[in-house]
């Protein structure tokens, strides 16, 4: 069964890391890249909605396979 996944619209992201604080199971700060990355193995993290709500720039895109 396809799972919900998400990605970050990097050009919109201010690197505030609120999403990392809200949902560390799913988002992580990558020192080398200097940006937030999504951990692919945790796509159904319970705090995803909180991270989306906390993002000040609406740059977390959620891909729900059940929503066309
Ligand atoms: S909360 Fe939004 S703006 Fe802040 S680092 Fe995460 S994705 Fe970027």
What brief labels describe this structure?
globular; binds iron/sulfur cluster; alpha+beta; 2 helices; two-stranded antiparallel ribbon; single chain; 68 residues; Alpha-Beta Plaits
Plain-language structure description:
It is a single chain. It contains two helices and four strands. It has helices at residues 18-22, 48-54, and strands spanning 5-8, 27-30, 35-38, 60-63. The chain has 68 residues and is α+β, with helices and mostly antiparallel strands. Helices cover 18% and strands 24% of the residues. The strands form two sheets. It has a two-stranded antiparallel ribbon. A hairpin with a 4-residue loop joins strand 2 (27-30) and strand 3. It has one domain (5-63): Alpha-Beta Plaits (2-Layer Sandwich), CATH 3.30.70.20. The two termini are 15 Å apart. The longest helix is centred in the C-terminal third of the chain and has 7 residues, at 48-54. Bound molecules: iron/sulfur cluster. Iron/sulfur cluster binds next to helix 1.
């Amino acid at each position: 069964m396809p799972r919900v996944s998400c990605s970050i619209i990097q050009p919109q992201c201010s690197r505030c890391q609120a999403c990392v604080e809200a949902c560390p199971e799913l988002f992580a700060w990558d020192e080398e890249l200097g940006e937030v990355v999504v951990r692919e193995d945790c796509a159904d993290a319970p705090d995803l909605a909180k991270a989306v709500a906390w993002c000040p720039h609406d740059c977390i895109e959620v891909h729900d396979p059940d929503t066309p």
